[in-house]
Design goal:
The structure is a single chain. With 209 residues, the chain is α+β, with helices and mostly antiparallel strands. It is built from eight helices and four strands. A four-stranded mixed sheet has the order 2-1-3-4, with helices on one face. It binds glutathione. Glutathione binds next to loops.
Length: 209
């Protein structure tokens, strides 16, 4: 059985979105970050970093949202959601997955860290302008890469779209402008993915408990 350790409206949604795309059953183990459960000894035994998401599949425990998506796609999925290892498509898939984590997400996360995540004495508000500018540079590259395609690899949705899409939704909630018309249309396409909506609905039910 697959267990997701997570908290709603965090990178956990990348994993639950992927699981819903794959049509897999999973348990959601709610780690209440607001109550400090990320730092509990029991959760640190799963992820020493104390961060979500984490995932277990039988005796395998994984952290890092992008790695979890690759594992799930390779083990339970197929192309086009997760192109085969060694294929050209997989090369492009991984290029955009790593771009999402390394280039698109990082400036946003810098903003998040210095707004609320870091201890107050570690926050440097002067970094915001530069981080916002860096995010805009990453958006230009993404817009260029997407061009007139529906999804980042072409006409088919892939796991890379989950990583990119989740990051773009995050940017919207951080009030970062996204001006490129092709990115706006891409966001609208991703927003209504039934698997994303199902993942969010399940998360909301957990919060409402
Ligand atoms: N690179 C990790 C980042 C994980 C991460 O930073 N998760 C945040 C939630 S989105 C977290 O658990 N923060 C709690 C904390 O830092 O204490 C991934 O992609 O899974």
């Amino acid at each position: 059985m697959i267990t997701v350790y997570g908290y709603p409206q965090t990178r956990t949604t990348r994993v639950t979105w992927m699981l819903e795309e794959l049509g897999l059953d999973y348990q959601f183990n709610f780690i209440d970050l607001m109550k400090g459960e990320g730092r509990s000894a029991s959760f640190r035994a799963i992820n020493p970093a104390g961060k979500v998401p984490a995932m277990s599949d039988d005796d395998l425990v994984l952290t890092e949202s992008a790695a979890i998506l690759s594992y799930l796609g390779d083990k339970y999925g197929s192309a086009p959601l997760m192109p085969s290892p060694g294929s050209k498509e997989r090369g492009h898939h991984d290029q955009w997955a790593y771009f999402s984590i390394a280039e698109l997400e990082q400036p946003l996360w810098v903003i998040g860290k210095h707004k609320f995540a870091l201890p107050k004495e570690r926050r440097v508000v002067e970094i915001f302008d530069t981080a916002a500018w860096e995010f805009q540079q990453a958006l230009k590259l993404l817009s260029h890469g997407l061009a007139d395609k529906d999804y980042i690899l072409g006409s088919d949705f892939s796991a890379a779209d989950i990583l990119i899409g989740h990051t773009l939704f995050w940017a919207i909630s951080f009030k970062q402008p996204i001006e490129q018309e092709n990115l706006k249309a891409y966001i609208e396409r991703l927003k209504v993915r039934p698997a994303r909506l199902a993942a969010i609905e399940k998360e909301s039910a957990l919060v409402a408990r």
